[in-house]
Amino acid sequence: MSEIENKTEHGSMDGATAGTAGDPKNDTGLGLGVIFFIVAFLICFLSGWLLFPKLLYSKHEQPFNFDHVLHVEEAGDCESCHYLRDDGTFSGIPKMESCLDCHTDEPMGDTMDEAIFTSEYVAKEREIPWYVYARQPDCVYFSHAAHIQAAGMDCQTCHGPIAETRTSRPYEENRLTGYSRDIWGKNIWGITKNPWDRMKMNDCAKCHEKETGHKGYCFQCHK
Ligand code: HEC
Ligand code: HEC
Ligand code: HEC
Ligand code: HEC
Ligand code: HEC
C-alpha cells in the first residue's frame, strides 16, 4: 500500500518537476516524440492508403490483347459481335465461332497476340477464357434488353469507352469477395465522375429512381 503510494507520489513529483522546472532535456524528448509520432502516422497512413488497394486486388491479364478499334472498323458495328437474340437474351462476349468469320489458324498479321490467338485457340478449337470486367455476383439478375432496347441506353453509360481502346486492360479481382474491381470502382472512397466508374447496388438503384421514379423491388434484381 505504502509502496504504491510512494511510487505514485514519486511519479507525480517527477511529472511536476518535469512540467514546472522545464528541464530542456525532457522538452526535446517530448518534441522528438511528437515528431516521431506524426512521421510514423503519416508513413502508416500513406502506405495503407497506397498499398491497401494494391494488396486487396489481384491482377489477371486477358489471354491475349484484343484490339476493339481495329475490330469495330473491320466488322462495321458492335452488333456483329454483341447482339440481342430473338428471345431477348444477350450474346455477351462473342464465341470463337464469330471470330472464324474472318480468322483461320493462319495469322493474317504478324503480331504476338494474333499468334497466341491462332495457335492456342483457333488451331486447338478452344473457347477463349475472357475475363468479364462488368461481371456481377451470381445473385444479381441483369437484363441487357431492358436497358439497350426498352430504355435505349448506350453501351458506354455502363461500360465506359472500352470499345474505343486498342489494348485490353488487366482484370482486377477483389481477393476478399472474388468480385471484379469495376463493381466498387477505382476510387477507394467511392467517388465517381462517370456513371461507369462504379456499379454497386446503389448505383443501379439511383439510376432507376431517376429514370423510372422507383428504386425497384429486391426481386427485380435478385431472382
Ligand atoms: C470482320 C472480320 C474479323 C472478325 C470477325 C474478327 N477479326 Fe480479328 N482481325 C481481323 C483483321 C482484318 C485483323 C488484322 C490482321 C493484321 O494484322 O493485318 C485482325 C487481327 C486480330 C488480332 C491481332 C491484332 C493485333 O493488333 O494484335 C487478334 C488477336 C484478333 N484479330 C482476334 C480476334 C478475335 C478473338 C475475334 C473473335 C472475337 C476476332 N479477331 C474476330 C478481322 C476480324
Ligand atoms: C469482332 C468482334 C467485336 C466487335 C465488333 C466488338 N466487340 Fe466488344 N468485345 C469483343 C471481345 C472478344 C471482347 C472480350 C475481350 C475484351 O474485353 O476486350 C469484348 C468485350 C467488350 C466489352 C467488355 C465487357 C466486360 O465487361 O468485360 C464491352 C463493353 C464491349 N466489348 C463493347 C463493345 C462495343 C460498344 C462495340 C462497338 C463499338 C464492340 N464491343 C464491338 C468483341 C467485339
Ligand atoms: C445499364 C447498364 C448497361 C448497359 C447500358 C450495357 N451493359 Fe453490358 N453489362 C452490364 C452489366 C451490369 C453486365 C454484367 C452482367 C452480369 O454479370 O450478370 C454487363 C455485361 C456485358 C458483357 C459481358 C457479358 C458476358 O458475361 O459475356 C458484354 C460483352 C457487354 N455487357 C456489352 C455491352 C454492349 C455491347 C452494350 C451496348 C449495346 C452494353 N453492354 C450495354 C451493364 C450494361
Ligand atoms: C444509367 C441508368 C441505369 C443503370 C445504371 C441501371 N439501370 Fe436497370 N434500368 C434502367 C431503366 C431506365 C430501366 C427501365 C427499362 C424499361 O423501360 O423497361 C431499367 C430496368 C431494369 C430491369 C428490368 C426491371 C423490370 O422488372 O422490368 C432490371 C432487372 C434492371 N434494370 C437491373 C439493373 C441492375 C442489376 C443494374 C446495375 C448492375 C442496373 N439495372 C443499372 C436504367 C438503369
Ligand atoms: C436495381 C437493382 C437492385 C435492387 C432493386 C436490389 N439490389 Fe441488391 N444488389 C444489386 C447489385 C448490382 C448487387 C451487387 C453489387 C453490390 O454488392 O453492391 C447487389 C448486392 C446485394 C447483396 C450482397 C450480395 C453479395 O453477394 O455481395 C445483398 C445482400 C442484397 N443485394 C440485398 C438486396 C435487398 C434485400 C434488396 C431489396 C431491399 C435489394 N438487394 C435490391 C442490385 C439490386
Structure, explained:
The protein has 223 residues and is mainly α. It has a domain at 61-93 and 130-221. It is built from 10 helices and 2 strands; from the N terminus they run ααβαααααβααα. The chain has helices at residues 2-21, 24-56, 68-75, 96-99, 112-122, 144-150, 155-159, 181-184, 201-212, 218-221; strands spanning 57-60, 171-174. A two-stranded antiparallel sheet has the order 1-2. The protein is flat, with a radius of gyration of 29 Å. The protein starts with a helix and ends with a helix. One heme C binds at residues 78, 82, 92-93, 132, 134-136, 140, 142, 144, 147-148, 153, 155, 157-159, 199.
What string gives the helices and strands in order?
A: HHEHHHHHEHHH
What order do the strands of the largest sheet run in, or round the barrel if closed? 1-2
Count of DSSP strands: 2
| Rough outline | flat
Count of DSSP-assigned helices: 10
Q: Helix amount, in percent?
A: 40-55%
Tell me the structural class.
mainly alpha
**β content, as a range?**
under 5%
Radius of gyration, whole Å: 29 Å
Mean pLDDT: 87
**Oligomer type:** single chain
What's a quick, concise take on this entry?
With 223 residues, the protein is mostly helical.
SSE topology:
Blueprint: H1 2-21, H2 24-56, E1 57-60, H3 68-75, H4 96-99, H5 112-122, H6 144-150, H7 155-159, E2 171-174, H8 181-184, H9 201-212, H10 218-221
Antiparallel strand pairs: 1-2
The structure holds heme C (5 copies).
